[in-house]
Specification:
single chain; alpha+beta; four-stranded antiparallel sheet; 11 helices; globular; CehA/McbA family metallohydrolase
Length: 560
Amino acid sequence: MKFTARVCNEKKEAIFCRIHVYAISNCSETPRENNKATVYCNGEYVFELAPGEYGIEITKGKLFSPVKVNIQMAQDDVVLETVLTEIIDTKRLGLYSFDAHSHVSRSLSVQTGNLEYASTVMKGEDYHFFFAGSPYDQETHREDIDVCYNAEVSYRERFSDVIAAANNDSFILDIGNEIVKCRYGHMFIMNYDQKPPFSQYYDRAWDPWLFTKIGDEPRFMIPYPYEALRRERGRNSVAVAAHPTSWWFHEGEFISNIAATLGFEILAESIDAMVIMGYDRDHRYYQSLWYDALNNGYFMPGVAETDHTFDTNQTKYLEFKTYTYLEDFTIDALCTSVKAGRNIVSSGPIVLLSVNGQLPGAVLNYQAGEEFRVRIEAFPCCEAPLHQVQLIVNGEVWKEYSVNEERIEVNEITIISQDSYILAKCYDAAGNVAIANPVYIKNTPFVNRDFKSDLTVKVMKDGEPADGRFWIDDDPHKTAFSKEITSKISVAAEVNIEVEGTVKTVKLFEMDELQSIFRNLYFGYFNRDRRYRAGEVPAEYFELSRIRSLLSKVDLHVRF
């Protein structure tokens, strides 16, 4: 027998949604689609069901009230027509949601690993922007396995018809990617024109070795993360450090996805944001690391990630959204806003923050002892009422409000006498969390904006001071030097030194002191005593302050 579900919004328009059907009793067989019978569709789906009683759950993210009913399949077909009611329309608040870290295909044997299905899922989960992650379908997946690509056509161009068909006035699909996957960490980019292979910045030698640790650490054979990001990013791309404290044990071996080079990437301005929500609703280690970056005087937006795989039945990470304030519904407007820090991350509820009427990402000047008006407003999702709201100043809870309400508005006055940042966080009774990015109150520039290293290089040849020429990056102008080089450079710059026709290149990233910090993280040396559980890395092990100190004034010796 057929069970037809038809779902619309309050305007009687068909609506993308998730439909879950499950047997309650007296069913001779389970629904035929799969054991869980969960589908995503554009408002209508027909199930073939055996006689019996079934539970039906219809959802669209967590900001629509779910529909939960039981039906009895006897002799006749059953049609259910229902309406999903929106709890809060984030678009009216100027907020639009996105995700930019996923993997469309992970299994060549599962047919749902394609952009069409992935877009249907993201619409059904109430996302507005979706930057799909590689592999983009089974064909691109197979190409990567066989190392056979059409390198002339970008993935945007290749999938242009699919992208055009998926897009509408409330949803935009684009190609994104976890572009860097290496021992130093993983980074993803949104809004760039990627050409094959999507895996060109994957540390292929590292991954197999990581699970066995037989022999020496493999040589690093690909561009460093900051180099890869600099090569690939476009005019208005957004690069993000993924799952910054992620690691686990596999058969006793330490497996790292830690953003080991975060302190360098921030100063190199190779990343525009870092993940502060993912895998867990309230990931304290991500947040502590973020607060440490902010306490160092850095401008660093925080975003969420799903890291979802679309050819599996696991959907628990699809709850993690980043909402961003937009004036125009375009990719460029989104990326500009994300980089400006106008973001809220959430697993369900919505929390709004303003300071003196200014939204997250704003920078306000102050006079010592000046009062600032802080306003927080929070709205629940469908799962539970609000439970707690926190006003956080400089990474510490300044004030906390316990509530059991459907909506809360808080107005406070706080006195600022030093460079500070203010953000808001809320919890609901189901454990969902939302965090508004900070409003900055400061009179000094952000430390990571146009950060420069004072570099001195003493140059020797055959044990004696040498003369020669040097140049920065691809600058055609070569400057003569005698015995030593002094220059103020970006930490991402390459210093090319020529002595009697021989050229050597200096990269600050390769400094021994920095590499020691990175290895302490990606080899798990920080956890020799096994004090920490998977995913836990205290912020102090990233040594953000020490990295800045090491890079502020650099003295090197180069020998020819």
